[in-house]
Hints:
Blueprint: E1 8-10, E2 13-15, E3 17-21, H1 37-49, E4 54-60, H2 61-64, H3 73-88, E5 92-99, E6 101-102, E7 105-106, H4 121-138, E8 147-150, H5 153-157, H6 167-183, E9 190-191, H7 199-202, H8 210-216, E10 223-224, H9 231-235, H10 237-245, E11 252-257, H11 266-282, E12 285-290, H12 325-340, E13 345-347, E14 352-356, H13 371-388, E15 394-397, E16 408-414, H14 419-430, E17 434-439, H15 455-459, E18 461-463, E19 471-472, E20 477-482, E21 494-498, E22 507-508, E23 511-513, E24 517-521, E25 527-534, E26 537-542, H16 546-551, H17 561-572, E27 585-592, E28 597-603, E29 609-611, E30 620-623, E31 628-629, E32 632-634, E33 639-645
Parallel strand pairs: 3-4, 3-12, 4-5, 5-8, 8-9, 10-11, 11-12, 14-15, 14-16, 16-17, 17-26
Antiparallel strand pairs: 1-2, 6-7, 13-27, 18-23, 19-22, 20-21, 20-24, 24-25, 25-26, 27-28, 28-33, 29-32, 30-31, 30-33
Amino acid sequence: MQRPSALLKSAGRPQIWLGANYWSRSGGPLMWRSYDGEVVTEELRTLRDHGLNMTRSFYYWPDFHPEPYRIDDEMCARYADFLDRHQALGMSTVPTFIVGHMSGENWDPAWRGDRDLYGDIWLVSRQAWFIREMTRRFAYHPAVAAWLISNEMPIYGSPPGEPEAPRERVASWAQLVVDAVRAGGGSQPVSLGDGAWGLENSGYDNGFRVADSAELCDFLGPHVYRMEDDAVRQHHAAAWVCELTGTFDRPVILEEFGLTTDFSSAAGAARYYRQALHNSLLAGATGWVAWNNTDYDELREQPPYRHHAFEMHFGITDATGAPKAPLLEMRAFAEVLREIDVARCRRADTDTALVVSSYLDTVYPFTRPEDRPYVQQTGRQAWIAARLADAPPALVRESDGLPDGARLYLVPSVKQLLSPTWFRLEELARAGATVYVSYSPGAHEEQRGPWYAHLNRLFGVRHLLEYGLVDPIEDDEVTWTFGRAFGTLPVGARLTFRAAGTADNRVFLPVEPDGAEVLATDERGRPALLRHVVGAGSVVFSTYPIEHMASVTPRVNPEATSTLYAALAAAAGVDRPVTVDDNRVAVDRLVHEDGRTFVWLVSQSAEPLSVKPSLPDGATLVTLDGTETGSVSLDPYGVAVLRLRAER
């Protein structure tokens, strides 16, 4: 099964962006009023010398469009100089039109009034005119790599506390403003700059649907700034959103990510950038634009830094222009991208599929809003566990139908699938696949229980539920003991999971086998994991919502679900040519079009590790400079990139 890693192309040539969102340290969002070209050149040169090749830049709307029917020519002249300085250094930039929102403040042109940015026909026409005319001025310039309509328009168009805009209104606005770029002669790629925060990725409807954006845009650009309670989830936060976004068959650019060093030590910032860059590459991203290029200590009296002090220190350089730890990580990443010739690489195929319930991206009648983020939350935890099991999965959205082609289908902690999907899963098992499902009654008390079309028949059990009641997990930990060998787990193997959740979902499903064999029991002798042979394949059923319990447990990863998934992969015959017998290390691969295979080992350990990967017979691992290696040493949260050399 293929995993998407589409490349952005411009004029028929693939584009790999590694850059930074840019405001100069001398002006921040007001830089065009006191434009200093020499500072710009100095800052750009520092980025270029550390391997970066582009920036994302911003037409600060109140300055560039001071009156409804006038564009400021002096501001445009300064922007033209900005473009020339990029070109002189061999760099490019992505102009952003409607700004709009920036760094904790919304910035309106004085003439906007209280008009609706999406629904007021006059104001939409002014936006479209501004976009068309700015495109007409600069579309010819070789330093323009692409166009972005806005910066985080959901926050600008519907500020916190205000109702979200309707989908139809947002989609109509988006169509008109994207058309304005083309009307202005812009042939470069275009996207919205909305952050890819829509229903399909988050479970929350802000009016911007990722599916609608994919119809209009040449690429999709997640913005990711997560506050987490688990280091491994934090390290995969951006990658998970990139993976979800990649299901819409467009190139994925990690358009904004980063951190303020007010919230992180230098060592922590380095770890975060290292993990975000490599994990998102392995999740299908093909461009990275850090937030942002510099710190702003000298602008402490200027909004937004006056009231959002932490916004001063998101820079990858400090306020003197000196590199910070994140820029050094970007330089190392740039070297890896160069050495593997990443524009000619794709993600290795996989035999594992992770099913994403359509209850994430579809509002079904008489369902609750909590159902949607629940799917996102449990799916992310399962995706991380599969990666740590060295079985990185393709995401398959139920909304698109479940394809053939995987040996293992993971359906984690699920309450709701459509009725036909349950029969489709049985069909896949009959054709030879292994289908794994773990029980969950959902996120709340309403219609609490399994919305499964044929639970007893599919899983070879008789459930023992009593209507309206749940069966709580009594202990703080749940231990399974395997009475049968399963995959990599021998008889007597034990897996322990931390119990967590609410009174509605910290529960198990009582069953007795009726055709299924019990693989593992809990500490009270109850069936915990069962296998039901169905046709040429099997259905494996967990009576515990182990992925959900992990997803709501702080500092839990790595945890035992990855060990279970490794066993599932082995039992299903999943092809995993390189594995590590340590669930603190994830293994993944990129394949070059010339046949070379590059292997990533990504550590989630706070301590140094030395691991010896298992390889196909006759194969060896070599460093990128060609040195053969057996054991691999990994620094805390370190990354090793190697090449798999087949038998000669």
